[in-house]
Design a protein that fits this description.
The complex is a heterodimer of chains A (about 110) and B (about 900). Chain A is α+β, with helices and mostly antiparallel strands and about 110 residues long. Chain A has 4 helices and 3 strands, in the order αβααββα. The radius of gyration of chain A is 16 Å and the shape is globular. In chain B, about 50% of the residues lie in helices and about 15% in strands. Classes of the chains: A alpha+beta (about 110), B alpha+beta (about 900). At the A-B interface, α2, α3 and β3 of A face α2 and α4 of B.
């Protein structure tokens, strides 16, 4: 099943970013979307909605957990928190990503002849 | 959270998700509005930034991976709705399937309990019956039961074997128990040491019979069965240590076997030790069943080899008396053929049960074909709906699944109702089942039967739905939309599936009816056989035993027996009375031995063919209705005078002397020290072992004679079957008068095995009549279902061709032409079915050959009769819709054009 957040990103990228963001602090969906947008300097063209399938998947895998609460702007929001498994998973994914990135960078590096 | 828990809480999860998304957009809108945008613009912008809300929600939900479950539930709901909307169809289909499943589950429960389940003993797979054959022993070779063990054989096997954990011999019989209430003849088993040890079933109360009781003249002890214990002693546990009088001797009760315990398949009241007198034993006396438990890991072949090894040891260790050659038995070619105990118990019933299972399975297929046909017709009318669904984007896989879900639900519901039917079906089956069906008491609906029912329900559900699903939910489903309902023509292609089903039904019905027909012919053939007695309903039988402790002198026993006969004959309505060692088919252990004719030469004068021995009193033949072919019968004077006279059966007379009259006046004897006996009469052949078995050669001795048990002193048989001919046989008042007559001679004599000869006869043909009834039921069910199938298809076709028939009638066709046209369609299908069915039946009926008697498996008369019957029934089923077709009003039919 093709999910649309994969259109512009490689598989798992969005999940990784969500986990990384949640590692700093628990956030609700909207805040999470804004944070990712802001920190990526709007370089990543993500539909805000595409966050939700990813969040559901993380919930199912029990990498994050969610609780209804009240936000700083006094609205009823569902706040996501990283679980211990989630933290471990993030670590693993990040190191895998870095290796992959290194590989890609080397291949793409100019000046090799 | 477990998967299942998530599944059930998913509604909450979905609501959370929807709310969350709503809140998200709301927050964005507020932020944008706060940033100065108008509310309307803000909402549009927020939605743009978010993307498609519907799709996002769907994608998010799909993340949980429940989609297939949810679709299935939707299909189930849809299917249930479809079934509810057609209550008539659902009811008919459900009932058909339920009856089919019920019948199958009932028969399966019997097959399972009798054939599949292990026996009711610990580690029953190690238990074997010590069956052996003796192809070299004339007269014995054609016995199904083979050569039983002699006591000396038992001692040799028990002491020298290397392959058995324990081994013993046993025998069933009857003994009288006195001193309780009325004198009573009870069913007994006599066991040697090793039998209980092999079966390993612990006693319910007290202890087993032990080796100490196997010593002759040692302590006299006895065990009781659970049933007898309950019946006679009310389950009193303090019974152990008390005495009962068995055959006039007091015996101490040492224990009670548990409920349901049977020795092999013999139900008994009292178990007594055999206690062989070891130093008197000779080689002969092959009268006991052998039973053993193999050592773990020992195969039947190894055990057979072990027994074969011990046969020479047996012949070296024992003798038949001075001057005899113990190795004479080598000519008998005794061959051990050990059988698993289960096979011994189940015997030839397994063929019957598998045949019945097969036929009931066929009925199930016919039933499924019928319901499939109904399904096809109904789905035809739903084609528009299916086409619309296809047009709206339902994949054809999804639609196939929808239809299959619907049919499987039908199957499962049928299974539930069918399980209820099966419950009553089993009781019915037990009521009509062969009285001697082995392991009868073990039959029940267990987990395996329920599992079978579920599998059958799902399987039949899939079978039902498969053809309609593939046919109508296929890739071309959308075509129906284009052609539209009204003008849809009855193309040949659309009817093919239904026609094929009907042809198949006719073919299967033919197979079942032919099998039932063959059983009817078998039954007829059995009835025409003269069994050696007449008018069995008017023959009253009872066994009376006079133990030695009661009357010692043999002649006195005979006087009492004759006195009883006189009293019996004096009862009003009694024509005559006689006694004999047994009536045909009674199934008591018969005596067999060699017989020598004076004017014939026998090899080394020890070997002659074995013959069945019977003892009969004067008047026996006349009472039983057994014809005297030549000569005359014994007189009481000859019997009391110990005259050396004998009678023989017609086939024996023909074998030795050519004709019955030639045999008269010739001399016979059993062994060399016995005086020659003169043949004074030749008796018609008697079907001793059942109507289906050939009549054995029989020697009839007087009821009292010298050398009866090998010694010169005159002896009588103490247990005899009394035969009374009376129109009143079997009635309660008559039986009371019989009892009073016997007790007027001696009030201590119990009457055992009180029954009419008809009862004995019915029991001996029970296997055949059971098969007949079952195949008859299956055949009639198939015939009815087939008839409904043909009727359904023809009337549907007629309704589809209404317009065409209208045109024909308008153009001048006569009613008769229309009838002919419709009938010819039905006839074609029927003929095709009959042809295929005959082919299939020719292939299948040989499987039931062992159940047939006096008719071949390919009996042309049966085949022809069944084919004609089926064609007539099919024509009848076609005629009704054909008549209706002629009443089509052309104006009405054509109005729509």
């Amino acid at each position: 099943m093709k999910t649309r957040e994969q259109r512009d990103l490689f598989p798992g990228a969005l999940e990784m970013m969500i986990l990384r963001t949640l590692k700093r602090q628990p956030l609700h969906g909207y805040a999470l979307a804004q944070h990712i947008k802001r920190t990526s300097n709007d370089l990543l063209q993500i539909e805000e909605g595409s966050l939700y399938p990813a969040l559901q998947r993380l919930l199912k895998e029990e990498l994050v957990k969610a609780e209804w609460g009240i936000s700083s702007t006094n609205r009823r929001v569902r706040i996501y928190k990283l679980t211990a498994t989630g933290a471990k998973h993030l670590e693993h994914e990040v190191s895998r990503f870095e290796k992959m990135l290194e590989g890609i960078t080397r291949v793409l590096a100019p000046g090799e002849s | 959270m477990s998967w299942l828990k998530q599944l059930f809480s998913r509604k909450q999860l979905y609501e959370d998700l929807a709310e969350e998304i709503r809140e998200h957009i709301e927050e964005k809108v507020e932020e944008l509005v706060a940033g100065g945008m108008s509310r309307k613009e803000a909402e549009a912008a927020a939605r743009r930034a978010f993307g498609n809300v519907m799709l996002t929600e769907e994608d998010s939900r799909n993340m949980w991976g429940w989609r297939s479950v949810e679709d299935l539930l939707a299909d189930v709901r849809y299917g249930l709705r479809a079934l509810r909307h057609n209550p008539m169809f659902t009811a008919v289909a459900l009932l058909t399937i339920a009856i089919g499943i019920g019948a199958n589950a009932a028969v399966f429960s019997v097959v399972n309990s009798v054939l599949l389940k292990p026996l009711n003993y610990p580690n029953a797979e190690e238990l074997v019956s010590l069956h052996q054959i003796a192809p070299g022993a004339p007269g014995l070779a054609d016995f199904e039961s083979g050569l039983h063990l002699s006591p000396s054989m038992y001692f040799t096997y028990a002491e020298h074997n290397r392959t058995f954990q324990s081994l013993g011999v046993w025998d069933a019989g009857t003994l009288s128990v006195t001193g309780l209430a009325e004198p009573e003849q009870v069913r007994t088993v006599e066991v040697s040491d090793g039998v209980l040890q092999a079966l390993e079933v612990p006693p319910a109360v007290g202890r087993w019979l032990s080796e100490a009781e196997q010593v002759p003249r040692g302590p006299q002890r006895v065990m009781l069965s659970y049933g007898y214990w309950q019946r006679r002693f009310g389950g009193d546990r303090s019974i152990v240590g008390r005495n009962i009088k068995v055959d006039g001797r007091p015996r101490e009760i040492v224990g009670v076997m548990p409920k349901g315990f049977r020795l092999v398949d013999t139900d008994f009241d009292v178990m007594v030790p055999l206690a062989f007198e070891r130093r008197n034993l000779i080689l002969a006396g092959f009268g006991y069943e052998g039973l053993a438990r193999l050592k773990p890991g020992v195969s039947i072949a190894e055990a057979n080899a072990d027994l074969t090894r011990m046969l020479p040891v047996w012949m070296d260790s024992w003798t038949n008396g001075p001057g005899t050659n113990p190795h004479f038995y080598e000519t008998w070619k005794i061959t051990p053929m050990i059988r698993p105990l289960k096979r011994e118990i189940v015997g030839n019933v397994s063929e019957v049960l598998w045949v019945v299972m097969g036929t009931i399975g066929l009925v199930m297929l016919v039933a499924c074909a019928n319901v499939t046909n109904l399904f096809l017709v109904r789905i035809e009318s739903r084609q528009q709906e299916l086409a619309v669904r296809a047009a709206l984007g339902a994949g054809w896989g999804r639609m196939v699944r929808g239809l299959l879900v619907e049919s499987v639900m039908l199957g499962l519901m049928g299974g539930v109702v069918g399980a209820a039917f099966a419950y009553s079906g089993v009781r019915l089956l037990l009521a009509i089942g062969p009285a001697n069906l082995p392991r009868l008491s073990e039959i029940s609906l267990d987990a395996r039967t329920l599992g079978f029912t579920v599998v059958l329900a799902v399987f039949s559900g899939l079978l039902l739905g498969l053809i309609p699903a593939l046919k109508y939910a296929g890739p071309r489903a959308s075509l129906a939309l284009r052609s539209g309902g009204r003008a849809a023509s009855a193309s040949r292609e659309r009817h093919r599936a239904r026609n094929v089903l009907v042809v198949g039904q006719v073919a299967m019905a033919l197979v079942l009816l032919v099998s039932a027909g063959l059983m009817i012919r078998t039954f007829e053939a059995l009835r025409t056989v003269s069994p050696g007695f007449t008018d069995a309903r008017h023959l009253q039988l009872t066994r009376i035993s006079i133990p030695e402790v009661m009357v010692a002198e043999p002649e006195r026993v005979l006087r009492i027996q004759e006195e009883i006969l006189k009293k019996l004959a004096a009862i009003p309505g009694v024509k005559s009375a006689g006694l004999g060692s047994e009536m045909p088919m009674e199934g008591f252990d018969s005596a067999w031995d060699c017989i020598f004719a004076q004017d014939k030469i026998y090899p080394d004068n020890v070997m002659a063919p074995l013959r069945l021995y019977k003892n009969i009193s004067p008047g026996f033949l006349d009472t039983a209705g057994t014809r005297l072919i030549a000569g005359r019968e014994f007189t009481w004077g000859e019997v009391y005078g110990l005259r050396p006279v004998v009678m023989i059966s017609e086939n024996l007379a023909r074998e030795i002397w050519g004709t019955p009259s030639e045999a008269l006046g010739k001399q016979l004897r059993e062994f060399s020290s016995m005086p020659w006996h003169e043949v004074i009469g030749v008796i018609q052949d008697v079907r001793e072992r059942g109507v289906q078995d050939p009549a054995p050669e029989i020697v009839y001795w007087p009821p009292m004679m010298e050398y009866l048990f090998g010694e010169k002193t005159a002896q009588t048989l103490r247990t005899e079957t009394f035969v009374i001919r009376s129109e009143r046989a079997g009635t309660e008042t008559f039986l009371n008068e019989v009892r009073q007559a016997v007790w007027s001679v001696n009030s201590n004599l119990p009457l055992a095995s009180v029954r009419t000869m008809q009862g004995v006869y019915d029991k001996s043909v029970a296997r055949t009549s059971f098969t007949l009834v079952m195949l008859g039921i299956a055949g009639v069910m198939a015939l009815l279902l087939g008839m409904i199938g043909i009727y359904g298809v023809i009337s549907y076709t007629v309704s589809q061709r209404k317009r065409e028939i209208g045109i024909r009638l308008a153009l001048g066709a006569q009613g008769g032409d229309v009838v002919k046209m419709v009938l010819s369609q039905g006839t074609k299908m029927t003929l095709a079915g009959v042809a295929i069915g005959i082919g299939a039946a020719l292939g299948l009926t040989p499987l039931m050959r062992s159940l047939l008697f006096g008719v071949t498996a390919q009996d042309p008369r049966t085949f022809a009769a069944v084919a004609v019957l089926l064609i007539l029934v099919a024509l009848l089923a076609c005629y009704i819709p054909a008549r209706r077709a002629t009443r089509v009003d052309p104006l009405v039919a054509l109005r729509y054009e």
